[in-house]
Each structure stands twice: as structure tokens, then as C-alpha cells.
Automatic annotation (TrEMBL):
This is MFS-type drug efflux transporter P55. SUPFAM superfamilies: MFS general substrate transporter. It is found in: Cell inner membrane. It comes from the Bacteria. InterPro entries: MFS, MFS_dom, MFS_trans_sf, Sugar_transporter_CS.
Length: 573
């Protein structure tokens, strides 16, 4: 067990970074129309704008196992800094975008950087706190992540009231830089449990392993220079400042090549691409000692499987369809990639998900996490839908009704972490999820006028509190039973299972709900507008019922997380 001179300050900084990434998931809710206009899309092209949202989710989920594994091989501080750097670059690219591919690419980078912060931070908790004492810090991480989800739309609205949508992402970039500097300062003295792994992460030629370089320090300096040149050139290409583009001499590198309109298909864009290739070639021997210890083939297969799964369901309109436009093509690809990974997992000497990681309480933790994701997304998506069907047609007001639920989740996460100091994770998570399940059973009976009642606020708050109570116990049990040198990948699997539960669960519950919706409408000879709305309420009630079942099953699975508090002397690490 290694420590930092200021573990609470380091965890606080990492947690704020997690909250920033969580906020970015929802920050586009109110800014989407302006973002579409900024890249030349009209409001009638909403389907083409779907990748703006799904791209972030794709980046967030698809590479989580890879980053989780990486955080087990090198210092978690380095992983946090790397993820923040990717997040900052993605935020800047998004802010500069004037075309859809660049905007989507920036959002994907934001998702990769933001998603990677979560398993690295959870693994950092396992590194800095012994088993039996992780409840409160895990509760803090879960709480700030949920607080970020609540604040995202509010912060977006505040920025839009003063500036345009681009300032949202410039502020993200600035915040990422500040947080990176704080992690760099506060992380001094924090080691890594796997000293041998960390030794291999040193520059080849200095550590004596990997490819020997003639002058390692000079090589590193050249790599840094090439990286800075890449950022400057590509940044200038995307920015295209008018003072330069209008200049007779200096403007020539910004003129698009014949047949193209993109700012990247210019001389300066080409120079930036060349600098990027040079950076990659120079960096390859520096990072190879770590990369060779990662199952890159397995990581690629997992990324493809998760990516196809996300795009299949995330690109669908939950009110109208279950599977996105390319779903029937992507799902078979996901199945093949998953099958090939299982074969790879058995054959590889060091698979991406190390053998022995998914053991004991890690298994019920993954099941419970996935089912929590199903319940969570059902409330987040369908409460606003019910509000628009029965209370108000204004989307903003409908979203504000959801705040009653969202505010209670971080409170529950903090309470769940605090309770772990006294009882076992099973006795915290199971009652919480049972409370959430019962609350959603009540919600499955809601109809016109229900959301306007005072008791509806109590039910939504109870459901949020119950779900929040389960967050820290699930993470705690998984980290306790995972090997000490695999906390990163274990944390990543818990996060992935929850996100996959959200994506797939929403699709499946929507499918069942839509089936009841169409059956109700078809039973009517000449349905009126109100009757169609009533059928929509039936669909929402069906989704809530399915979510309630998921929460109750998760409560049963959580009983396997253990009833006894883990004592300090039994810590696995």
C-alpha cells in the first residue's frame, strides 16, 4: 500500500475532474441546437446531429477496459494526467469546430479522456486507502460524479446566458488544465503498488528494457517538440484566424485544396498531419515497454464490441425506436468481436482482463452495477417523457422535474459510503436498491396529474436516494476482492457494466414499452391526440415497471456483496 503526502487533496482534485467529465455528458442538452447551427446543420437535421451525443458516449465506454488496465501498469497520477490532456484537446477541438466531423471527433476525445478518469480515480482510492476504510472516499467519488450530471445542464444554461456554446468547451479546457496542474503537484510522492510495472514504464534505454535509444532524453525532448508542433499546427488549421486567412501571403496555407471545404484539407492541416505522424513514430519506442504488457489485440476486440453496442442503442431515438439505423449491421460485428475476445482471453499469456479478476464478490458487483444502470437510465429518460405527456410540453420544465431525483442520488452516494464504515456493503446496497425498486413500482402506476402531486417528489427522491446508496458498496466490494495489481481493470469493469446496462437496458425496456404503445393505439378505431398521449403514458409505465424489476433483482444480487464490514487487517492489498 503506497500513499500520497496529501491523499485527500489528491482524491478531491481527481473527483472534481470526474465531476467535470460527468457534467460534459449532459452539458449539450440545452446547447445542441446552437452547436448544430455552428457546424452548418439546421434544426431539421436532428438525426445527423445524433453523433454529437453518441460520440461522447462511445469514447466514454469503449476504451474503459484499456485505460483501466493501463492504470494497473503505470502510476495512476500519469493516467489521470493523460486522460485530462485528452479531455482538454477534445474540448478545444469541439470549441473550434465549424464542421460536423471535427465536432464529433472532439466529443469522442472528450469521452475517452473523461471516461478514463473514473476507473483511474477509483483505483487511486484503493491505492491510498486500505480495505475497510474506502467507504467514504468511494462515496465522495460517486457523489461528485452524480453532482456533475445534475450541474451539467445548469452550467450549460448559465454559460449560454452570457456567451455562446463554444465558451462551454473553452471553460472545460481551462478547467482541465488547472486540474492537471493540481494533480501534478498533489501527486508528488504518490507511488504505485506495482513498482516493477512502473519501472517498465520508464523510458527504454534508461530502464534497460525495450528498445534502446541512442540518447533517451534527447529523444523525449524531440517527441515533446513534435507533439507541441502538432497541437499548434492542427489548432491553427481549425481556428483559421481571420487576421491570417485574409493576409495575401500568410493566408495561402489556410486555403482548402481543390474539391474540399474542410479547414483540415489545407496546407497547414497537412503539415499538422505530418507532425502527428512524426510524433507517433517518436513516441512509439517510449511507450512500447508498457504497451507490450497490454493485450492490445484483446483491447481492440473489446473496444470494437463495446463501440458497436453503444452505437446500436445510443443512436436510436428512445421515443420512437429501439435500435439505431445501423444496428442490424453493428450487433453481429459486436457479437463476433466479443466471441473472438473470449478465445483471445483463453489463449493470451497476459489477457486484457487478467485471469482471476472476475472472482468472488466481483461477479455480483458487476451484475448489480449493470442492473443499477438499467434502473437509473429508465428514470433519467422517461420521467421527462412522462412530464411532457402529462404536465408540460416545455422540455426544460420537464427536465427540471427530473432534478428532484438527480439531487437525491449524490446524497445517497455519500450516505452509502459513510454507512460502509459500520456495516457490510450488502447491508447498504440491498436495502437501498429495494427502496428504489419499490419506488419505481409506485411510479409504474403514475398517470396524468401524478407528477404535480407533492408525494411524487417524495417518491422520486426515495428512488434517487436508494440508487445512490448502492454506488459506493458495489465499488467497494469489487475493489476489495480484486487483486491489488488489478484494481484499475476491476474498477473499469464495474463502470462498463453500469454504462452497458444503461445503454442496452434503455433499448430493451423501450422495445417492450413501444410494443404496448402500438398495441394500445391499434386497439382504437380513430384515436384522438389525447388517446395517443394516454398510450404514451402506458409505454412509460411499462418502462418504470421493467426498471423496478431490475432494481429488485439488483437488490437480491447485492446481498452477495457481504454483510460484514471488511476489517483493515484483511485488506488484499
Amino acid at each position: 500500500m503506497t500513499s500520497s503526502p496529501r491523499p485527500k487533496a489528491l482524491l478531491g482534485t481527481a473527483s472534481v475532474a470526474v465531476a467535470l467529465a460527468a457534467a460534459d455528458t449532459y452539458v449539450v442538452v440545452l446547447a445542441l441546437e446552437q452547436m448544430m447551427s455552428g457546424v452548418g446543420l439546421g434544426i431539421d437535421a436532428l438525426q445527423r446531429a445524433t453523433p454529437i451525443i453518441s460520440g461522447f458516449l462511445l469514447g466514454y465506454i469503449a476504451v474503459l477496459p484499456l485505460i483501466g488496465r493501463l492504470s494497473d501498469l503505470v502510476s495512476r497520477q500519469r493516467v489521470l494526467l493523460g486522460c485530462l490532456a485528452i479531455f482538454v484537446i477534445g474540448s478545444a477541438a469541439t470549441a473550434l469546430a465549424v464542421e460536423l466531423p471535427v465536432l464529433v471527433g472532439g466529443r469522442v476525445l472528450q469521452g475517452i479522456g473523461g471516461g478514463g478518469l473514473v476507473p483511474a480515480t477509483l483505483a487511486l482510492v484503493a491505492q491510498l486507502w486500505p480495505a475497510g476504510e474506502r467507504g467514504t472516499p468511494l462515496g465522495v467519488v460517486g457523489a461528485v460524479q452524480e453532482i456533475g450530471s445534475v450541474l451539467g445542464p445548469l452550467l450549460g444554461a448559465a454559460v449560454l446566458a452570457v456567451w455562446d456554446w463554444r465558451m462551454i468547451f473553452w471553460l472545460n479546457a481551462i478547467a482541465g488544465i488547472v486540474l492537471g496542474a493540481m494533480v501534478l503537484v498533489l501527486g508528488r510522492g504518490a507511488g504505485h503498488p506495482g513498482s516493477a510495472a512502473d519501472a517498465e514504464s520508464r523510458v527504454p534505454g534508461e530502464s534497460g528494457e525495450g528498445v534502446r535509444l541512442p540518447r533517451p532524453r534527447l529523444w523525449k525532448a524531440a517527441t515533446a517538440v513534435a507533439g507541441v508542433a502538432t497541437l499548434l499546427l492542427l489548432g491553427l488549421a481549425l481556428w483559421a484566424p481571420e487576421r491570417l486567412t485574409q493576409d495575401i501571403t500568410l493566408g495561402e496555407p489556410f486555403v482548402p485544396y481543390a474539391g474540399h471545404t474542410s479547414r483540415l484539407f489545407t496546407q497547414i492541416g497537412l503539415w499538422g498531419a505530418i507532425a502527428l505522424v512524426v510524433t507517433v513514430l517518436l513516441a512509439a519506442p517510449l511507450v512500447w515497454p508498457v504497451l507490450r504488457r497490454i493485450d492490445l489485440v484483446g483491447a481492440l476486440l473489446v473496444t470494437v464490441a463495446l463501440g458497436c453496442l453503444v452505437l446500436t442503442f445510443a443512436s436510436a431515438d428512445p421515443e420512437k425506436q429501439v435500435i439505431g439505423p445501423l444496428g442490424w449491421t453493428l450487433l453481429p460485428v459486436a457479437a463476433v468481436a466479443a466471441g473472438l475476445y473470449l478465445v483471445r482471453h483463453r489463449a493470451a499469456a497476459q489477457p486484457l482482463i487478467a485471469r482471476g479478476v472476475v472472482r468472488r464478490r466481483v461477479r455480483p458487483a458487476l451484475v448489480a452495477s449493470a442492473l443499477v444502470g438499467v434502473a437509473l437510465v429508465a428514470v433519467v429518460v422517461d420521467v421527462p417523457i412522462l412530464a411532457r405527456l402529462t404536465v408540460t410540453e416545455d422540455q426544460t420544465q420537464a427536465a427540471l422535474i427530473l432534478v428532484r431525483f438527480l439531487v437525491a442520488v449524490p446524497i445517497g452516494a455519500l450516505a452509502g459510503g459513510w454507512l460502509l464504515r459500520r456495516v457490510g456493503p450488502g447491508l447498504v446496497a440491498a436495502p437501498g436498491l429495494a427502496l428504489a425498486g419499490v419506488g419505481m413500482l409506485v411510479m409504474s402506476t403514475w398517470g396524468p396529474g401524478s407528477l404535480a402531486q407533492v408525494w411524487a417528489t417524495v417518491v422520486l427522491a426515495a428512488v434517487g436516494l436508494g440508487i445512490g446508496l448502492s454506488i459506493a458498496p458495489i465499488n467497494d466490494a469489487a475493489l476489495d476482492d480484486a487483486p491489488a495489481d488489478a484494481h484499475g481493470i476491476a474498477a473499469a469493469l464495474v463502470v462498463v457494466s453500469r454504462m452497458v446496462g444503461m445503454v442496452v437496458g434503455l433499448g430493451l425496456l423501450t422495445a417492450i414499452g413501444l410494443n404496448r404503445f402500438y398495441a394500445t393505439v391499434q386497439a382504437l378505431e380513430n384515436p384522438t391526440v389525447q388517446q395517443v398521449k394516454d398510450a404514451g403514458v402506458v409505454q412509460v409505465q411499462t418502462v418504470f415497471l421493467g426498471a423496478a424489476i431490475a432494481a429488485l433483482v439488483a437488490a437480491a444480487a447485492s446481498l452477495l456483496l457481504g454483510r460484514q464490514r471488511v476489517a483493515h487487517h484483511t485488506a488484499l492489498d
